[in-house]
Amino acid sequence: MQSQNRIFDDLARLSGGALSALSGLKQEIEAMIRDRLERVMADGGYVRREEFDVVRAMAAEARAEQERLSTRVAELERKLEAR
Predict the structure, then answer these.
(1) What is the pTM assigned to this prediction?
(2) Are residues 38 and 3 in the same domain?
(3) Which of 1, 9, 16, 35 has its CA 20 to 30 A from that of 25?
(4) What is the mean pLDDT of each run of 10 residues along the chain (83 residues)?
(5) How many domains does the chain have?
(6) Cα dihedral across residues 21, 24, 25, 26: positive or negative
(7) DSSP 45
């Protein structure tokens, strides 16, 4: 009976070690994939979403300013022609 308990203890210890090794392997593989994806994204000229949103906001602001300036130039041209 005692040898059966010892066998079960050994099996439990072995399976626990295997699970922790697999967990470590999983984390290492995920880190490698993440690193590789970041390199591919950087080499491909892709940008992160946050950077894209910032540039998009800047472009919208520049467009609005350009429209304001176009309106102002048109008004000044009308005043100039009225003279």
Answers:
(1) 0.48
(2) yes
(3) 9
(4) 71 76 85 92 86 96 97 95 90
(5) 2
(6) positive
(7) T
